[in-house]
């Protein structure tokens, strides 16, 4: 496939490069904000699992346009390239020390909003991926309970499943309103959605802790799915379709419908900010050195040799059963040499 193939079939990936967003997920946060106005009046924001930084870019753009004194803290285990106006912390969201450092950056005050677009490295085993994502949301909530002010907002990615209602019911104990949002830029074929929790109001006597392993629900009646205030699809039919392929000569603007000029022609662009320290960095270096190709060649050769030996042994056994002399060793050596030469 050519370099432009993904630009054709993923319009939001292409638009992200056109408008200097670090990832297509920037459009997801913008569309949720356009629908729910979650950034209105926000002066202190926390972005969990922030790398590569597209949601922090959106926060920076939208908050500083209204209040130049706004503060944004971005946290991730991986290092992240700098973003103007964003305080970056390389740390663990399951650590209470990280929570205390966030509050220090806000001069002892708490955040108006906490957002989290984090997700595990998916395995393809759906039930396992759902479990790991739920554990990540729990970790995000634990630190949120330390740094979010009363009446604040929490937004996190979820993987929808038949057991999702339990998570929504649990969050409903801590927030007055819980919505499930599906931005238009999120593919319909994906189980991804975003749980939006507004008006943080923890139960009386609730003590934040990083050691919580579950969000307790004491009343079984609370487990019904009707605790969600609504499932909202963010975006309208005039926008771009994340499932559709587009030709390269279309107008690359957001939102769709602005005037086209001669300078707005297709031009391939590299990603805005590649990963600074990816977990697969060593694997990429090995691939460039051709180590994987050599391993593949050696494995293929070993497989051919094993198959040849197995065939020779079957032939020898067959001859022995017929009372013939065993297969000549020279014939076996000849088979091995043919396989190894190939």
Describe this structure in words.
With 342 residues, the protein is α/β, with parallel strands linked by helices. The protein folds into 2 domains: 5-234, Rossmann fold (3-Layer(aba) Sandwich), CATH 3.40.50.150; 286-341, no CATH class. Helices cover 37% and strands 17% of the residues. The chain contains 10 helices and 8 strands. The protein has helices spanning 5-9, 11-18, 26-36, 54-64, 96-105, 126-147, 164-172, 281-288, 291-321, 329-341; strands at 44-48, 71-76, 86-90, 111-116, 148-159, 175-183, 192-200, 230-234. Strands 3-2-1-4-5-7-6-8 form an 8-stranded mixed beta sheet, sandwiched between helices. The longest helix has 31 residues, at 291-321. The chain starts with a helix and ends with a helix. The relative contact order is 0.12. This is Putative tRNA (cytidine(32)/guanosine(34)-2'-O)-methyltransferase. It is found in: Cytoplasm; Nucleus.
């Amino acid at each position: 496939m050519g370099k432009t193939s993904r630009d054709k079939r993923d319009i939001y990936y292409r638009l992200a490069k056109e408008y200097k967003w670090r990832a297509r997920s920037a459009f997801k946060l913008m569309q949720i904000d356009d629908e729910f106005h979650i950034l209105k009046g926000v002066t202190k924001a926390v972005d969990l699992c922030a790398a590569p930084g597209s949601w922090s870019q959106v926060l920076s753009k939208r908050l500083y346009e209204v209040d130049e004194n706004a503060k944004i803290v971005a946290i991730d285990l991986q290092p992240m390239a700098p973003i103007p106006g964003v305080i970056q912390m390389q740390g663990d969201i399951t650590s209470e020390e990280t929570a205390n450092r966030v509050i220090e950056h806000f001069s002892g005050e708490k955040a108006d909003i906490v957002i989290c677009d984090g997700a595990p490295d998916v395995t393809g085993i759906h039930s396992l991926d759902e479990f790991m994502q739920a554990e990540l949301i729990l970790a995000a909530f634990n630190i949120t309970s330390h740094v979010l002010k009363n009446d604040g907002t929490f937004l996190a990615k979820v993987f929808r499943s038949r057991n999702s209602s339990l998570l929504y019911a649990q969050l409903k104990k801590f927030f007055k309103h819980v919505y499930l949002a599906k931005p238009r830029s999120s593919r319909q074929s994906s189980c991804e959605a975003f749980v939006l929790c507004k008006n943080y109001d923890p139960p009386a006597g609730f003590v934040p802790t990083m050691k919580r392993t579950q969000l307790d629900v004491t009343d079984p009646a609370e487990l019904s799915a009707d605790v969600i205030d609504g499932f909202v699809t963010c975006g309208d039919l005039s926008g771009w379709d994340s499932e559709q392929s587009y030709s390269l000569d279309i107008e690359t603007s957001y939102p769709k419908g602005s005037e086209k000029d001669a300078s707005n022609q297709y031009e391939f662009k590299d990603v805005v900010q590649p990963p600074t320290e990816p977990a697969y960095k060593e694997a990429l270096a090995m691939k460039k050195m051709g180590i994987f190709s050599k391993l593949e060649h050696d494995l293929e050769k070993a497989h051919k040799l094993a198959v040849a030996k197995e065939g020779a042994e079957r032939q020898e056994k067959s001859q022995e059963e017929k009372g013939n002399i065993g297969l000549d060793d020279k014939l076996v050596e000849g088979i091995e040499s043919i396989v190894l030469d190939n």
